[in-house]
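Design request, tokens follow.
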């Protein structure tokens, strides 16, 4: 009975798969139009193939190899381009496959005693001291956002969040915006206290591009420190001594977790790369002014919550071999 059911369920999407295992269909218009989650193997193949083609395209652009640029651009477009890749990523986030990665961030918020804003306390971004008892005047910037209903969004009700992606799958709620061209807001009041960068850094095709993305994130964090200082200054004196932001159980001040960056990478980027280990990533982050607050390694992904404290050494990091060996990948971060 059960096996008949599961066979029936697979039928509508099976036409997306070629007869040979793990081969992409020649045209992926079906992938960009279908709403049903793609089979996980097809999602993985699509994601991997998109990353490889993107990386090769970026190399071809650097070498000014016009033939390769034309070939790879055409390959990307016939395989459905960024949108097919995004649909495949959305399929990977379905609740049946564990949900979106920000579920882990919410688990950490709960552990850290960070209170969810209630509708009454949400004052629509008014940066007043009265709301220091919860997140109601804290702001989230999510880079590479596929859905406006990710788990963490319940902590940042509109207008306390800015969601963006190179290609917006929900134009009403997600900005079509390259983060690298998104400036730090002029006024600290319009800035952000937490940035989510989940499975985006590995999308950037070059090691130095990844370093640049971390640096750009850090310039937002510098402004976020200013937001924190301003917020602390605006607290009434009695509130400073008897702080409403102290977690009753742990005795710690949950606001000290901010400003912060939630970073998610495919686990092999730090567990099986020739050029990046967890220690090296931590060195890079410390040199940019971060402290690790939480970390979780799953078989597929690695999740981090980094608190920005400022004052790092701003060291440069080249691509250097840390773990030699044949069966490793080449993921690297170069900080110039
Ligand atoms: C694998 S998806 C990750 C989506 C989601 N955050 C997650 O955790 O599953 C990567 C997304 O990052 C977006 N992206 C990559 N570089 C970006 C940039 N510079 N600015 C905005 N979005 C970017 C891509 O368009 C893509 O939709």
């Amino acid at each position: 009975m059960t096996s008949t059911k599961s066979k029936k369920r697979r039928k509508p999407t099976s036409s997306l798969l070629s007869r040979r295992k793990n081969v992409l269909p020649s045209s992926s218009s079906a992938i960009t139009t279908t709403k049903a989650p793609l089979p996980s193997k097809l999602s993985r193949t699509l994601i991997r193939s998109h990353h490889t083609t993107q990386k090769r395209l970026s190399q071809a652009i650097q070498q000014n190899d016009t033939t390769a640029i034309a070939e790879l651009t055409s390959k990307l477009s016939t395989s459905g381009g960024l949108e097919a890749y995004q649909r495949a990523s959305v399929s990977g986030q379905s609740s049946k496959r564990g949900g979106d990665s920000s579920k882990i961030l919410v688990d950490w918020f709960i552990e850290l005693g960070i209170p969810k804003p209630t509708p009454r306390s949400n004052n629509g971004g008014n940066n007043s001291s009265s709301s220091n008892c919860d997140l109601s005047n804290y702001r989230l910037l999510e880079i590479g956002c596929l859905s406006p209903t990710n788990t963490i969004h319940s902590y940042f009700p509109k207008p306390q969040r800015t969601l963006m992606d190179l290609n917006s799958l929900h134009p009403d709620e997600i900005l079509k915006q390259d983060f690298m061209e998104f400036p730090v807001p002029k006024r600290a009041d319009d800035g952000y206290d937490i940035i989510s960068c989940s499975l985006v850094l590995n999308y950037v095709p070059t090691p130095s591009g990844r370093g640049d993305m971390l640096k750009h994130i850090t310039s937002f964090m510098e402004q976020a420190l200013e937001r924190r200082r301003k917020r602390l200054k605006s607290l009434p004196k009695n509130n400073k001594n008897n702080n409403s932001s102290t977690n009753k159980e742990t005795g710690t001040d949950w606001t000290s977790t901010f400003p912060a960056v939630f970073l998610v990478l495919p686990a092999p980027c730090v567990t099986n790369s020739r050029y990046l280990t967890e220690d090296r990533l931590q060195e890079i982050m410390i040199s940019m002014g971060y402290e690790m607050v939480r970390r979780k390694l799953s078989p597929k992904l690695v999740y981090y919550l980094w608190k920005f404290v400022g004052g790092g050494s701003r060291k440069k990091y080249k691509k250097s071999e840390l773990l030699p060996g044949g069966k490793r990948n080449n993921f690297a971060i170069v900080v110039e």
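Comment from the thread starter after seeing the answer: thanks! The first strand starts at residue 140 and ends at 143.
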